[in-house]
Amino acid sequence: MKFNLFFLLFFAFLNVNNAQFIHSVYVAPGINIYHYIPSHQNYIVSTNHKFETNWQSTAGYRLKYTFNRFSIYTTAELKYSKIKFIQFSPSLDYSGELINAEASLGLNYKIYKKINFGFDFKQIRELSATGLFFKRYFDLDENYNGFSLSLLYQISKHFEVGSHYNLTLDNQYKSLSKTWGNTLDGFIHKVYLRNLDLRFYYNF
Hints:
Layout: H1 2-14, E1 20-32, E2 35-40, E3 50-52, E4 55-67, E5 70-88, E6 91-112, E7 115-130, H2 132-136, E8 138-140, E9 143-154, E10 159-168, E11 173-176, E12 187-192, E13 195-203
Antiparallel strand pairs: 1-4, 1-13, 2-12, 3-5, 4-5, 5-6, 6-7, 7-9, 8-11, 9-10, 10-13
């Protein structure tokens, strides 16, 4: 009885006035904001090695259910990232490319007229990693979690534009590549893959 009552209240909640499903496709050019934090078990590490901010692009699909000021949504997207890692001593640059598939579940809230603030939790799957950076230095995790904060503006019934800041919850470092694994014992590496993009939605 309690189980049936829960579902009755749940569906009554979803079927409030002005509630509707909205399908969307979107593209999102952006930049990568990657962080590399090395340390050592026995002493302080000072290094100028760093990621150079590079670009990324995303294409995705969103299914959104809106009711009153709230929207629940889920997305599926494919993301291509181009990165460069700069090593200062000796001076070398290592480029790399990532292709990730991402799925998310989130909540939007209308804070003022056509302006929405959103938060979502995402699961990320690495499909491909190529280039000297990945082959020379690191083996990164293929599966990890993250979240994003978004600010959206409803231009019209069919068009939205917004910015997303995506953060990974996990340190993406898994292990050093075989080339370097035996020479850098004692070092602790943290690699965080983050990005900021501008999204353009078409609703239908």
